[in-house]
Write a structure and sequence with these properties.
heterodimer, A: 538 residues, alpha/beta, six-stranded mixed sheet, 20 strands, B: 272 residues, mainly alpha
Chain lengths: 538, 272
């Protein structure tokens, strides 16, 4: 039975085309996957049918839910439909809940607003829904506040709110992108169970092909506002008719060519010896010492010249805290860090700092928006003594920009003139400018679309060979770590639980946590990709 | 009202008074000290464009010089606030969570805890009433305002990656504050400066009204209002004109501040 039928949905925002003739159908009890890169229009499709569009937007076409034509409804009618007929879950559970209201209140609110129940009945129903999403009464009473919950638990509350009125259609927009893999697996399981039991339709919007492979019955691939290909999931994965679909698949499983330079066996550039990091938590009372949080508990490893070392772990495992200490931004509370054989820390000399540079995750927050690229890339020159003259600065900035695939003319531009991938190239150029021996890549490709990510990974592999760099590659993404590192460390709760050659660890994980991580990582079934061995998916 | 129109109207109103103040430095229709009892309390238009006061002084000239007094006091007071408040705010943000942050912010709270007028009365009681002391009093009240705005905006910037990148490039907190933080919060400070400027004009008028600001014979809008009180039924223009001047200047500055905020804040620009 058809639940939702979208026919020739087009959308312009300020006369700029956003969607072009999007058509698809969804049935009850079905999971429909909408995949594509950022800006492809997948979220806008959902927002357009809910009439949640920014000012200046004009939609045309038809979107029929059950018997109701959604695009022509008045705002008042849409208010009744949203929440009652259509539930929605967003990407960021940290901001989707009101921090000053209890979770019970927030789930019950949906019921009260729609006049479905009195307040006391609504609270009873809220309890039921929270139980359904796995937040049991003994551990999660209605009186809990969002800040007392983890990201995954908050996402469960969001799901409870979305399903409070048992809508026939549930839209999940990147519901697990902000979550750790193990949490992601649980949330996906929950969503799957809801679809099966409650018979609702689930529109799953995601950039992750592996997630779609495990969840969806039908998949549509979007590019630049159009659906380029849609079919049953397995058929689509096996056939891949459209060029763009093929490019997306190739990029998501892309592995850069192996780097020939074998790591020098005994020369440790970076030695981390039993490092402990703790910080003070807010005081509980007026007197007495503040409790301390042990973020890193005795971590030891070495990074050899020319080596690419991966550090994987979920959020809160202490990898960022450790990174800050390695970069000499924070002091350590125990153990020692040695860079190039010398002790490192907040007070280390500039020539040591010049040897270790960093690329951050967010290509948008990484640059002072008021500076031109020349000044941005040249910033680490501050570390050099004597500082190069103006001509040499420009020459070296130009050289660094060319090394990362940009042109010297880009020096005169501001960061907002570049795309996310280009900005990440600028960030790499900035990190290379002092000719460091070590590059710390802190989730450096996590925010990028798969095709851009593939190109940046290629660039990193090439730079490692040409510049003789050693990488410390920090990521939560196991695919990427597998693609670019020689050796990997698995971190959990401030400790390194497993260490070894990357392929060996991925092929035969020894520690239960590593096994759990690998098991939770969504994969495309191996036999779906038969016949295309060069694209073998991880 | 659309942001552009707000800005233009506000800037135009402000410009009128700024120009009047500037012109008064070199020329006024009549000398403001010239007392001519014979020509006292003339209605507007009767030989004098805006009439005369109870000493026969030309109202237009008085208003022009009064604008100069108000604007000079307000500019200097805002200058004191920025000069002291912004560095304090930057310092507090750079040392966030530390002892220095705590000391600066609690000091701020202390100043905030006194109403500005009480501080002004305190200062003038100690040092005697004068325009200079009014400037100092209003200036002191401006310091915590700028310190807070600066610290709040700076704190959110300190969490960004480009600050971390600058730290990795070996830059110290002072250098980062000057190179990265200050330029990126400058628009906020400009907007806050405009608002404090209008508040400064109001404060100056208030202090002069109670006799704690500019001293005679220097004309000031606040004192013109005070002196007109007893003659309000006889010559209403004596009260209406300086009152209107104060209202229009403050309105102009506030509109300009709103317009600037919309113009300089890209988030608001998008929703307009």
């Amino acid at each position: 039975m058809t639940l939702l039928s979208i026919r020739n949905l087009s959308l312009d925002i300020h006369r700029r085309p956003i969607l072009r003739e999007v058509s698809f159908e969804m049935r009850r009890g079905e999971v429909f996957g909408l995949v594509g890169e950022s800006g492809s229009g997948k979220s806008m499709t959902a927002l357009a049918m809910m009439q949640l569009l920014p000012p200046g937007a004009r939609a045309s076409g038809r979107a029929v839910l059950g018997q109701t034509e959604l695009l022509t409804q008045s705002e008042a009618r849409m208010c009744r439909i949203r929440g009652r007929e259509i539930g929605m879950i967003f990407q960021e559970p940290m901001t989707a809940l009101n921090p000053v209201r209890t979770i019970g209140d927030q789930v019950a609110e949906t019921l009260v607003i729609h006049g479905a129940a009195s307040r006391s009945d609504a609270l009873k129903a809220a309890r039921q829904r929270l139980d359904r999403v796995g937040l049991t009464a003994d551990r999660f009473p209605l009186s809990r506040y969002p800040h007392e919950l983890s990201g995954g638990q908050r996402q469960r509350v969001c799901i409870a709110m979305a399903i409070a009125l048992r809508p026939s259609l549930l839209i999940a927009d990147e519901p697990t992108t902000a979550l750790d893999v193990t949490t992601q697996a649980q949330i996906l399981d929950l969503l799957k169970g809801l679809v099966a039991e409650e018979g609702m339709g689930l529109m799953l919007i995601t950039h992750d092909l592996a997630v779609v492979a495990g969840m969806a019955d039908h998949v549509a691939v979007m590019q630049a506002g159009r659906i380029v290909e849609q079919a049953g999931t397995e058929a689509l994965f096996r056939n891949r008719r459209h060029d763009y679909t093929r490019a997306l698949f190739a990029a998501s499983s892309h592995r850069p060519a192996a780097v020939a330079a074998a790591p020098a066996a005994d020369k440790a550039l970076l030695a981390v010896e039993d490092v402990r990091r703790s910080y003070a938590l807010p005081r509980r009372g007026l007197f007495g010492p503040a409790p301390r949080m042990e973020a890193v508990r005795g971590v030891s490893f070495t990074l050899k010249a020319g080596e690419s070392l991966g550090l994987v772990g979920e959020s809160g495992c202490g990898k960022s805290t450790l990174t800050r200490a390695i970069l000499g931004l924070d002091p350590v509370q125990g153990g020692a860090i040695r860079l190039f054989g010398e002790p490192a820390g907040p007070g280390m000399p500039n020539r040591l700092r010049a040897g270790i540079q960093v690329v951050f995750q967010d290509p948008y927050g990484s640059f002072n928006p008021r500076w031109r690229v020349e000044r941005l890339v040249a910033e680490p020159f501050h570390l050099l003594a004597p500082q190069p003259g103006r001509d040499e600065r420009r020459a070296r900035v130009a050289e660094a920009l060319e090394a990362v695939g940009l042109t010297p003319a880009d020096m005169e531009k501001y960061p907002h003139e570049f795309s996310g991938g280009q900005r990440q190239r600028i960030a790499i150029a900035r990190a290379l400018i002092t000719r460091p021996g070590i590059l710390v890549l802190d989730e450096a490709v996590s925010a990028l679309d798969v095709r851009v990510r593939a190109r940046i990974l290629d660039l990193l592999a090439a730079l490692r060979e040409s510049h003789g760099l050693a990488y410390l590659f920090i990521s939560h993404d196991l695919h990427v770590v597998r693609a670019i590192t020689d050796r990997v460390l698995v971190m959990r709760a401030g400790e390194i639980v497993e260490e070894g050659a990357t392929e060996a660890v991925f092929a035969a994980p020894r520690h239960p946590y590593t096994q759990e991580l690998l098991a939770a990582t969504p994969v495309v079934p191996a036999d779906w990709t038969e016949g295309t061995p060069h694209e073998a998916l991880v | 009202m659309r942001g552009g129109a707000t800005l233009i109207l506000g800037a135009a109103l402000t410009a009128v008074f700024a120009v009047a103040a500037l012109v008064s430095l070199v020329w006024t229709p009549w000398p403001v000290e010239a007392i001519n009892i014979a020509l006292r309390l003339k209605a507007p238009g009767d030989g004098f464009l805006l009439g005369t006061d109870h000493f026969g002084r030309d109202m237009l000239s008085m208003l022009m010089v009064g604008a100069r007094t108000s604007i000079a006091v307000a500019i200097l007071a805002v200058g004191i606030g920025i000069a002291a408040g912004v560095p304090l705010g930057l310092l507090a943000a750079a040392r966030h969570g530390g002892l220095l942050d705590e000391v600066i912010m609690r000091g701020n709270d202390l100043v905030f805890a006194f109403p500005s007028l009480v501080i002004a009365i305190l200062i003038t009681a100690v040092f005697g009433p004068s325009a200079t002391n009014a400037i100092i009093a209003i200036g002191i009240f401006n310091i915590p305002v700028f310190a807070r705005v600066t610290r709040g905006a700076a704190l959110s910037l300190w969490t960004l990656d480009y600050i971390r990148a600058a730290q990795v490039a070996g830059k110290g907190r002072a250098r980062i504050s000057m190179q990265h933080i200050l330029p990126n919060i400058a628009n906020l400070l400009i907007v806050q400066g405009t608002i404090q400027f209008s508040l400064g004009i109001l404060a100056e008028a208030g202090l002069s009204y109670v006799g704690l600001g500019a001293q005679p014979p220097l004309p000031s809008w606040g004192r013109m209002l005070a002196e007109s009180q007893t003659m309000i039924s006889l010559a209403p223009h004596l009260a209406i004109l300086p009152g209107l001047a104060i209202v229009l200047t403050v309105l102009g500055l506030n509109l300009m501040g709103d317009g600037l905020r919309d113009l300089l804040d890209p988030r608001l620009r998008r929703t307009r």
